[in-house]
Amino acid sequence: MRVLLSDGAGLTAGQCATVLSRAGHEVEALSPDPLCLCRFTRRVRRVHGVPGIGTDPLGWLDAALGVAARGRADVLLPVQEQVAVMSLCRERITGAGVLTAVPDFAALAQVQDKVSAFRTLARFGLPQPPGAVVTSAAGLLAAAEPPLYAKAPIGTASAGIRYISAPAELRQLAASWPWDATSMLIQQPARGPLAMIQSVFAHGELAAFHVCMRVREGTGGGASHKLGIALPAARESVATLGTALGWHGALSADVIVTDTGPLFIDINPRLVEPVNALRSGVDLTAAMLQVAGCGSAEPQPAGTPGARTHQLLLAILGAAQHGGQRRDVVRELRHALTRTADYRDSTEELTPAWSLPVVAATLATLVSPPAWRHFADAPRAYSLTPAAWQQLLDRAEKDGQLQPSRRVREDDL
């Protein structure tokens, strides 16, 4: 099949390109960044320039459909936040003769932003840290005391999330937050390791499921090292959520694995980095293509726990960010080259492992560790901004896909 990836800049795009190419598919990608990650892999035949969805989501769709028509793409596969505009305009995509796998926009809107996701999880009784939605400085100061996490409704790759550890920080946040423009979700911290849930649904039926633990944090909150695990309680919760929403396509989430069970801290209505799942025996990309092709997918068996994978690019940048010294980067390189420490029995998720971006990041951070910041802004290419999300919501209301929105009320669920 000719598969056109909705994004070419993110790690998920790079991993999907590898998996799809190895399965015999022809892969191309879209990106506003001419030097995006997928530009440096032979797995992607071509990267097409398009507008960024953060500034022009509907213009992105126009360009994407033009590329799909000229290249006779069979599938437009959502691998980043372009899923929002693809969901809104699903009929336009399929009407152009292009297959895809995206949920109804009314379902997506219930989990796309953090405030809506918090309310949706609460409505279905799914576990999450105690929290509240606040809409004013007074409401914030009255709702909780530090420590807490303050979350903007829209943000990608940990953007828009702040950890507040002291009352002075809370007062400063209350005074500086743009209350006229957005509300805020506050949540108490949860103790335990972070795990990433990945699933694919076909009209509310769970077709594929995987969980991996974040063994090491790279840059931007991403996982440089992962371990596939079994987490039955999370599977049950995700199945409940997907069935209740009639979900169609990929659905991912982050949870904190506490002593009493997993607590949801984030929902992503899209596919996320599928290689650890594949190493565990769960092929999320194949499930997505099945859902796109025929609207259903044969349920896959549970994966085998224990698969260890890593992303050297994130590890190098994480060493520079968290350590801040050349010796931290050198130590990371030594472990990677000798396959010791966290690299023992671990498989690289991105191919080739020593691509130009990895070599460039390595050399730059060896010269100056703060250079990691120049390599950590890939989310700009695929992030959905608050303004872009509001544009899609307004369009959905105009088209009758959503009821007119009401002002968020403060609550303490």
Describe it.
- The structure is a single chain.
- With 413 residues, the chain is α/β, with parallel strands linked by helices.
- It has helices at 11-22, 57-70, 83-88, 90-95, 105-108, 114-123, 137-143, 167-176, 232-245, 275-280, 284-294, 312-323, 326-338, 356-367, 372-375, 386-399; strands at 2-5, 26-31, 46-49, 75-77, 131-134, 148-151, 161-164, 184-187, 194-202, 205-217, 223-229, 249-258, 261-268, 308-310, 347-348.
- Strands 13-12-9-10-11-14-15 form a 7-stranded mixed β-sheet. A 4-stranded parallel β-sheet has the order 3-2-1-4, with helices on both faces.
- A hairpin with a 2-residue loop joins strand 9 and strand 10 (205-217).
- Helix 7 packs antiparallel against helix 8, helix 12 runs antiparallel to helix 13 (326-338) and helix 12 packs parallel to helix 14 (356-367).
- The chain is globular and about 55 Å long.
- Residues 406-413 have low confidence and may be disordered.
